[in-house]
TrEMBL record:
Name this polypeptide is given: ABC transporter domain-containing protein
Domain of life assignment: Eukaryota
Amino acid sequence: CPAAIRPPQHIDSDMVLVIDGGRLAEYDAPQKLIANKNSLFAKFFEEAQNSST
């Protein structure tokens, strides 16, 4: 069961670290991760955006 923090509407971070299954899954600028539709962070971000509308 992943633990997550709901992302804000505006991301003010230089880098995002995603841990999945206790291991580093992704580490990059949030804009790059969001642009990659296969990214775990992008999927999480999209779900959070959809649930807030």
